[in-house]
Specification:
With 300 residues, the chain is of the alpha+beta class. It is built from nine helices and five strands. It has a five-stranded antiparallel sheet, with helices on both faces.
């Protein structure tokens, strides 16, 4: 009967309340951490460096470590006989500046980074109703969904739910946005075909143009976040790049690509695309080498 004593009851209630408050506090801290790492309501990247927005353009920044990593990649034995193309631009200021480039206009097999053209166009053509499908398609790189979206665009523009109609509509859509589509070719809507052709510059251009879209918030958040979500959830964990890169990945036999946005340690906002075709080393090894470049990018 001692358990029913009022003092024991009060003690039990006190311990319960303390545990409850402790758990609520932990949940609150986790929520605030996640919230502070996210973007603001207008879709812009929150500057976590603490540098005022009006002075960030004046920061002196060195890209030497990134350029060195890119040189190491070009000279790597995995690149023997392979085709490498990349373009990295800094969009922190009013005008974008080229940071690094290698054959940026050369059409290459893009793999799943092709989905950026499909999902970006779909957001502007169909608006908010298609947002849930875009989120899943880019985050988890679901091929059949991207192919379905391409055909849906063809049906909307040309009343033909076919791959060819969708591809034609998408090329015309991006051309109207000012993107040079010469050399670009869509054999499918997901990037599995080796006949697909997109250059690093075209990938960077579509990412840059999407920043002005009223649906940029949804487009940006649909891209996997390094070390946290989607196809990048295991990538670059525990490095300075964790939580700083939003990118679409692409992988088919002897093809690896990345294209997206990076928010660096110094507060720079970069847009990048890197594609490798015809490498002969193990895909995992090539993935590690390209991720090393992304880590250096985040460290700027």
């Amino acid at each position: 009967m001692d358990d029913l004593h009022p003092d024991n009851f009060i003690d039990l209630c006190t311990r319960f309340c303390r545990r409850l408050m402790k758990r609520l506090f932990i949940i609150f801290v986790i929520f605030m951490t996640i919230w502070s790492s996210c973007r603001n309501d207008n879709g812009q990247v929150v500057r976590r460096s603490g540098v005022p927005a009006d002075t960030i353009e004046d920061l002196s920044v060195s890209y030497d470590s990134l350029l060195t990593e890119l040189d190491l990649l070009k000279d790597d034995h995995c690149m023997e006989g392979a085709s490498l193309g990349y373009l990295i631009i800094d969009c922190t200021g009013k005008e974008p500046q080229t940071v690094a480039e290698q054959a940026p206009a050369r059409p290459l097999i893009p793999a799943s980074t092709l989905k950026l053209f499909v999902t970006g166009a779909a957001l502007e053509i169909f608006g908010k109703p298609i947002v849930p499908e875009i989120m899943v398609t880019n985050l988890m790189s679901i091929n059949w969904r991207s192919s379905r979206i391409l055909k849906k665009i063809g049906g909307e523009v040309y009343q033909k739910h076919t791959t060819s109609a969708g591809a034609k509509a998408i090329l015309e859509f991006w051309k109207a946005k000012g993107i040079d589509t010469r050399g670009m070719y869509f054999d499918d809507g997901n990037g599995l075909s080796r006949n697909d052709a997109i250059s690093p510059r075209q990938l960077v251009d579509v990412l840059y143009v999407m920043q002005s879209s009223p649906y940029f918030k949804y487009f940006f958040e649909s891209l996997p976040l390094s070390g946290i979500t989607g196809t990048l959830r295991k990538a670059m964990k525990g490095t300075p790049a964790q939580g700083r890169i939003r990118a679409k990945t692409g992988t088919i036999a002897s093809v690896k690509s990345f294209a997206g946005y990076a928010h660096t340690l110094s507060g720079r906002n970069l847009i990048f695309a890197i594609i490798v075709n015809g490498f002969e080393c193990r895909p995992r090894l090539m993935k590690q080498k390209l991720e090393a470049v992304l880590v250096k990018m985040a460290e700027i």
